[in-house]
Design goal:
- This protein is α+β, with helices and mostly antiparallel strands.
- Helix content is 64%, strand content 17%.
- The chain contains four helices and six strands, in the order αββααββββα.
- It has a two-stranded antiparallel sheet with strand order 1-2. The protein has a two-stranded antiparallel ribbon with strand order 3-4. It has a two-stranded antiparallel ribbon with strand order 5-6.
- Helix 3 packs antiparallel against helix 4.
- The two termini are 48 Å apart.
- The N terminus is likely disordered.
Length: 192
Amino acid sequence: MAAAASASSPASPAAVTERRGIPGASFVEDVETYLKQSGLDCNSSLAFLQERLQQYKIVEMKLLAQQRDLQAKIPDIEKCLDVVATLEAKKGTGEALIADFEVSEGIYSRAKIEDSDSVCLWLGANVMLEYSLEEAKALLEKNLENAKASLEVLVADLQFLRDQVTITQVTVARVYNWDVHQRRIKQATKEE
């Protein structure tokens, strides 16, 4: 999207910034100068800006889906870390751990876990690996840290995107209002 949008962008390149493939929008102070620099008429400029708004909405939907996925993933990782910590605490005490676990959606089973030095982690894509408790804890902590960092970047990307949507909407309004004003001036001069 960024390559196609930047190739056809009528805004001045110095005013436009980009963040992780999201094209920036430039604020238009003088519509007449903007239209002359872009080489477009009002209708073409409005069509371009509306297309840009649609692109922003598509990117926003993708980012929101990623944000939802990460927000669901973080509690799961924290739950797994708690289980590993519980297993480490019970290790060597000779005390068995009774646990209820989900076999599939809505179906649970009870297990008695004796003293264990390892744990199996579900990695996804039908892959499960056995790790020592220390390795599992380190891996889960790293995954939790990465997920939280990714969530922070996504939140910043969404804020940047919302700013670009607002700037583009203001630009659409300014170009449209300028065009209406110009038409009224032409209409007034024809009537005289």
